[in-house]
Amino acid sequence: MIAQVHSIERDQFGDPIETPQGTIDVIPGGLSVGTLLDAVTATSGQMGVRRGKTSTGYTLEDGDKLTLPSGCRYALQGPPLWDYPSNLTGTEFAYRWWKVTQSN
Question: Which residues, at least 6 apart from 44, have a Cβ–Cβ distance to it below 8 Å?
Fold first, then answer.
């Protein structure tokens, strides 16, 4: 699945400015919905993102946003998980997994 990537910068007033950074191949996986408060829910989980740069040469960072074809948006949190070759085989996998939360 191809996702749109947006980086988030802040202007002099602290307001977010989204900058399109191209597209990248992703695998949504392990997303779940949970209740935070009485009427508030949160969707979080993990997303597999193809190793490498976006279609425009951008390298993903904490806080970047991914927009799936369905329109759902997710923010990347922290560094990629398990970003190292397999200890058993030495294989460097094609996808890196990121913790994500639903975003607007």
Answer: 31, 32, 34, 99, 100, 101, 102
Q: Which residues of 34-55 are buried (b: 16+ CB within 10 A; e: fewer)?
A: eeeeeeeeeebbbbbbeeeebe
Torsion-angle region of 6 (φ positive above 0: left; ψ -120 to 50: alpha; else: beta): beta
* CB 98 within 8 Å of CB 81: yes
Q: What are phi and psi of 3, to 5 degrees?
A: -115, 145
Reported pTM: 0.83
Q: What are the mean pLDDT values of the chain's consecutive 10-residue runs (104 residues total)?
A: 95 94 91 64 84 93 95 93 89 92 85
- 57 secondary structure, DSSP code: S
Q: How far apart are CA 74 and CA 3, in angstroms?
A: 10
